[in-house]
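User: Show me a protein chain along with its predicted structure.
Assistant: Here is one chain, sequence first, then structure tokens.
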Amino acid sequence: MNKVTKYLRSFGAIALGMLSAFASFGLALAVFWLPDDKSTLYKTVTSLLATGLAFVAGGYVTGWLAKEKPVLHSAVFGGLFGLMSFGYIFANFRAFPAALLTGLLASGGGWLYRRKITSRQPGPISDP
């Protein structure tokens, strides 16, 4: 695989990871907020939970599509997406710690994908 194809695959994996994070965030909020008469505390906690799940799901999809170095690709996805999201919300230096946290959450999704792959590989064959 040449370098251009490799970079396009990495870029596509990160872009589709962002789309899957948007979709999973929307689905999680829709499920959490089905009854509309919930308190503000409930909505805040479930929003944070949905955000965490969305970053893990986006990291998993990014690692799945990238194939090579899934945890690194997922961490880059989480850092970029976190900087874009929280940079827009905070518009100052407070976005960097949030971006690091989202990078860790997303790399957790890549780790889950890598763990799934390594658990499928056959181990050494032992004689009965």
